[in-house]
Amino acid sequence: MKRLWRKTRVFWEEHELRIVTMVGFLVIGALSFFLGSLHGQQWQQKPLVITRAEAPPQIVIETTSDSGGAIAGVTQDNSKISTENKPVLNSDQSCMYVGSKNSNKYYPPTCSFAKRVKPENLRCFTSDEDAIKKGYVRSKGC
Asked: What's the rounded Cα separation, in Å, for the pair 121 and 115?
């Protein structure tokens, strides 16, 4: 027993500084972890819940023709004005792609750029081929 005690005492005298330093780092690390976890519980937020989006709205158009065959829209005072290819929103046919008459780009109706097109400049396309035939290029942004 004395021999074990002597070896322990010699080991302690040789490595006392290293042992105390290591124990100090472990105690400081443990305290920091526990204090950080207690502080983090105060700032805990509600869990993030991801839900599936509803079906995207479809843009639909109605085009009306007067006796001359031109496409006409209706203003707020219900008087008819004759314009070329001016769509009026309705539920008769769906608009697969949307473009502006002031641009050569076309977009899906759910695209943020499509939502910025003014109604008076709106062009409706039933397919990619329809838009390309009319000189439009698909937007790379959507």
From this structure: 12
Q: How far apart are CA 60 and CA 67, in angstroms?
A: 23
Residue type at position 113: F
Strand order in the sheet with 137-138: 122-125, 97-100, 105-107, 137-138
Tokens 């010699």 -> residue: 10
Report CA-CA distances (Å) from 135 to 57, 88, 95, 139, 141: 26, 22, 17, 13, 18
Q: What percent of the residues of the chain are helix, what percent strand, and what percent coil, each to the nearest 5? A: 40, 20, 40
Tell which phi-psi region holds residue 132, choosing left (phi > 0), alpha (psi between -120 and 50) or beta. Answer: alpha
**Residue ranges of domains in the chain:** 1-48, 59-138
**Each residue's pLDDT tens digit, 60-83:** 555 554 544 444 443 444 444 434
What is the pTM (predicted TM-score) of this model?
A: 0.36
* pLDDT tens-place string over residues 92-119: 346 788 888 888 888 888 888 888 888 8
